[in-house]
Amino acid sequence: MNVTRKIEDYADIINLPRPELRCHPRMPMEKRAAQFSPFAALTGYDKVVAETVRKHEDNIDT
C-alpha cells in the first residue's frame, strides 16, 4: 500500500503558528545556544573544518 500526499493537502494548516504549551514555555534562543556551547571547547575544530572545506572546494574547481 503506497500512500502519497501532496503539500496542498496541508494548505489549511501549513502557515499556522506553532502551538505553545503553557506548562512548557519555549526556551529563549540564548539558553538554547548555551546547550551547544560545549562544542566550542573543541579548540581548533573551526580551523580543521575550514581547511577541509577549502580542500574540497579546490578539488571541485580542478
UniProtKB/TrEMBL annotation:
Q: Which domain of life is it from?
A: Bacteria
Record's protein name: Uncharacterized protein
> Which keywords belong to this entry?
Plasmid
| Protein source organism | Selenomonas ruminantium subsp. lactilytica (strain NBRC 103574 / TAM6421)
